[in-house]
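Tokens as discussed.
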């Protein structure tokens, strides 16, 4: 398998496997993503997967990289349309996370596999927020912690029915604005 950390691309077959892994994850959640279930979906034997990914963690790392890439793209677009707007970034972040709740959970509810991510991806994903926070990395971390907490609670249905989440997001982002 190509070394993704160095930015090389997946083979066409590995790309197909990753796409099927993502489909399985999005449909059924992180607990359903097993090499056996993935092989079954592809109509192959599980050992054949290991020609393309050394283990399940490598498949998961590819999915985490997809989440970070897509989140970066969404935030970069929000930054273009609303330069410096924490509200625009928060909205883009929230929208992407809620559109892909299982992928978001896989990517954020366990340690980040930094060793397996493409070089610079974590920094790219954080850059729009750091810029919106005037270069203050500590403030950006605080804003991200707020956004992550809100999204996680929303994904897991932890807010009471009828809670004004749009208002909570507006209040939180306003409180953290530089």
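Sequence:
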């Amino acid at each position: 398998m190509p070394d993704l950390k160095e930015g090389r691309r997946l083979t066409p077959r590995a790309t197909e496997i990753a796409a099927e892994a993502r489909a399985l994850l999005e449909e059924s959640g992180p607990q359903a993503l097993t090499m056996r279930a993935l092989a079954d979906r592809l109509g192959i034997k599980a050992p054949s997967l290991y020609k393309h990914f050394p283990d399940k963690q490598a498949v998961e790392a590819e999915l985490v990289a997809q989440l970070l890439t897509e989140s970066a793209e969404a935030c970069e677009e929000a930054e273009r349309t609303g330069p410096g707007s924490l509200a625009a970034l928060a909205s883009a972040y929230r929208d992407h996370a809620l559109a892909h709740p299982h992928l978001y959970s896989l990517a954020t509810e366990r340690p980040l596999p930094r060793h397996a991510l493409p070089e610079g991806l974590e920094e790219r994903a954080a850059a729009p927020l750091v810029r919106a926070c005037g270069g203050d990395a500590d403030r950006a971390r605080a804003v991200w912690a707020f956004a992550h907490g809100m999204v996680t609670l929303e994904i897991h249905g932890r807010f009471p029915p009828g809670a004004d989440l749009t208002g909570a997001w507006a209040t939180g982002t306003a409180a953290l604005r530089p």
